[in-house]
From TrEMBL:
Lineage: Eukaryota, Viridiplantae, Streptophyta, Embryophyta, Tracheophyta
Organism: Lactuca virosa
Family the entry assigns: Belongs to the HDDC2 family.
Enzyme Commission code: 3.1.3.89
Pfam family, one: HD_3
Cited function: Catalyzes the dephosphorylation of the nucleoside 5'-monophosphates deoxyadenosine monophosphate (dAMP), deoxycytidine monophosphate (dCMP), deoxyguanosine monophosphate (dGMP) and deoxythymidine monophosphate (dTMP).
GO MF annotations in UniProt: 5'-deoxynucleotidase activity
Name of the protein: 5'-deoxynucleotidase
Cofactor list: Co(2+); Mn(2+)
Gene3D superfamilies: Hypothetical protein af1432 (1.10.3210.10)
Broadest EC class assigned to this enzyme: hydrolase
PROSITE patterns in alphabetical order: HD (PS51831)
Length: 257
């Protein structure tokens, strides 16, 4: 379910960055993404409800001004990330699953996987959790692009990088924005042991969700198991995937008897 077109009408469409979220003093270039639909109106409404802070210059120092700007940027960023909670993962929509998980649902359980995994030599658990939280964050703007969308991998990466740049501008740049960029790129390039492990968690979470939907909806979702077969890079990924597949095989065998 890698990737990102806006979801169908049965799910919440990811919203683009709208100028009303941006601090004019921070962003001077036009938005990369054209506003559209109800999400744009919702963001405008939310942003316009944030009271403007206009202290008397004689009563405020630069630290207070900076803190206020930082708070505004943080809430703008979190508002933009709201669509991660409401945008449904397109792979499940394409298979007719009613009320499927959101992008945020997927990332949250991946973060839990990183939290509960046993200690592994050379693996920084905290970094794994962080990578899991941000690996699909650009989908807040571009949505969930799946292989069925026919978007080349290079183009998908370009779109997501542009979206991530916009999001980090909303956040106001700085150390935290740089960290998000670094974590996302590390995952995208599969550039570390931590990225290897989180890539496996991405696949493990997907097939576990597939098994759960098979059980809940009495469906057979072979595609998700076939697409991940033999692609796990780590021992824990292979072990957890094997356990899920064993449970699935047991369930299918019981259905035949």
């Amino acid at each position: 379910m890698a990737a990102a077109n806006p979801s169908s009408s049965s799910s919440s469409s990811p919203h683009p960055l709208h100028p009303c979220l941006s601090n004019p003093q921070r962003l001077h270039r036009p938005c990369l993404f054209k506003p559209f639909g109800s999400h744009d109106r919702k963001l405008r409404s939310v942003r316009c409800q944030i009271p403007k802070f206009e202290p008397k210059r004689s009563a405020v120092n630069s630290d207070v001004t900076e803190a206020t700007s930082s708070s505004s940027s943080s809430i703008d960023f979190l508002t933009l990330c709201h669509s991660l909670k409401t945008t449904k993962r397109k792979g499940w929509i394409n298979h007719g699953i009613k009320g499927p998980e959101s992008i945020a649902d997927h990332m949250y359980r991946m973060a839990l996987m990183a939290l509960i995994a046993g200690d592994l030599p050379g693996i920084n658990r905290e970094r794994c959790i962080k990578i899991a939280i941000v690996h699909d964050i650009a989908e807040a703007i571009v949505g969930d692009i799946t292989p069925s969308d026919g978007v080349p991998k290079v183009e998908k990466s370009r779109l997501e990088q542009a979206a991530l740049n916009e999001m980090c501008n909303v956040l106001g740049g700085g150390m935290r924005a740089e960290e998000i960029q670094e974590l996302w790129r590390e995952y995208e390039d599969n550039a570390s042991l931590e990225a290897n492990l989180v890539k496996d968690f991405d696949k493990v979470e997907m097939i576990l969700q597939a098994l759960e939907y098979e059980t809940e909806h009495d469906r057979v979702l072979d595609e998700f198991f076939l697409s991940t077969a033999g692609k796990f890079q780590t021992e824990i990924g292979k072990s957890w995937a094997a356990e899920i597949i064993a449970r699935r095989n047991s369930r299918l065998a019981k259905k035949l008897n």
